[in-house]
Amino acid sequence: MPQIIHEQPEHAEQIEPLLDRCFGPDRFKKTAYKVRENTTPLPELSFVTVEGDKLLATIRYWPIVIGNVTPALLLGPIAVEPDLQGKGIGVGLMRETLKVAKELGHHLIVLVGDPEYYSQFGFENAADHGFKMPGPVDERRLLVKECKPGALDNVSGLITGKPFELAPSGRVATEVETEEVIAELAAFAPPADA
Ligand SMILES: CC(C)(COP(=O)(O)OP(=O)(O)OC[C@H]1O[C@@H](n2cnc3c(N)ncnc32)[C@H](O)[C@@H]1OP(=O)(O)O)[C@@H](O)C(=O)NCCC(=O)NCCS
Questions:
Q1: Which of 126, 118, 115, 122 is nearest to 156 (CA)?
Q2: In 1, 58, 139, 183, which residue has its Cα 20 to 30 A from 190's Cα atom?
Q3: Average pLDDT of the chain to the nearest whole number
Q4: In this structure, which residue's CA is closest to atom 41 in ligand 1?
């Protein structure tokens, strides 16, 4: 019976080949990869579907900023083992992880994908809202979902990866800066079941 669980370090060796099988070696040239360059996926929102030791699917979410001010998530990639596609694994992974993202308080989720598939989860066109990617993208496939009603109001602009901010080097961090870093690390801590 397939199970959805948090991604663990040992899953990495199965995830990369799965992504190669689903998207091919040119996947790194996609604009979505450019957005992800300076950031890392959120551990609390990185999930895999497994059956025993076998990895069947992966999904990750990345912290981004829209128009320099609005925090959001970039969903992707999601990939299901090619032999097992069309059996509901993708829908299950989407539904469960979108629920967790909402519970964690995220308001907006962006992705690049087929609207015919993602509209069932509440995704709509993001280019219509003035969202832009930092490189070429088929605007029809740039999608966004509100996890909280009104979250899209007055939000538009360039989508950028949100880098983990470090205090400038060469001096001791102030007490306030230290507390901010500790709070940020606490927000990144995986839930107890991870
Ligand atoms: C897209 C993907 C994640 C969907 O997962 P899945 O487990 O195959 O899909 P599910 O079984 O949950 O859902 C299947 C349904 O979605 C439809 N569907 C799947 N991919 C679709 C697409 N790209 N566009 C439109 N509909 C699609 C199927 O036709 C099927 O419809 P039906 O139930 O009416 O027959 C998976 O097919 C995959 O990994 N594809 C290759 C990688 C990819 O394209 N990832 C998404 C890019 S971000």
A1: 126
A2: 1
A3: 91
A4: 22
Site to substitute for ligand 1 among 61, 78, 109, most atoms within 8 A of C-beta: 78
Task: State the DSSP H helix or E strand holding residue 143, giving kind and residue range, or none if neither.
Answer: strand 142-146
**Closest among 184, 142, 183, 189 to 163, alpha carbons compared:** 184
Ligand 1, atom 24, residue with closest C-alpha: 117
Rounded CA separation 180/190 (Å): 18
> Residue 190 pLDDT > 70, yes or no?
no
The pLDDT, as a whole number, for residue 176 is: 73
Q: Is the pLDDT of residue 33 over 80?
A: yes
Phi first, then psi, for residue 185 (nearest 5°) are -65, -40
Name the pLDDT band for 38 (thresholds 50, 70, 90): confident
- Nearest atom, ligand 1, residue 23 CA: 42
> Cα Rg for the chain, rounded, in angstroms?
17
pLDDT value of position 9: 95
Q: Which domains does the chain have, with CATH numbers?
A: 3-163 (3.40.630.30)
Would you tell me how many other CB atoms lie within 10 Å of the CB of residue 8? 13
SS3 assignment, position 52 = coil
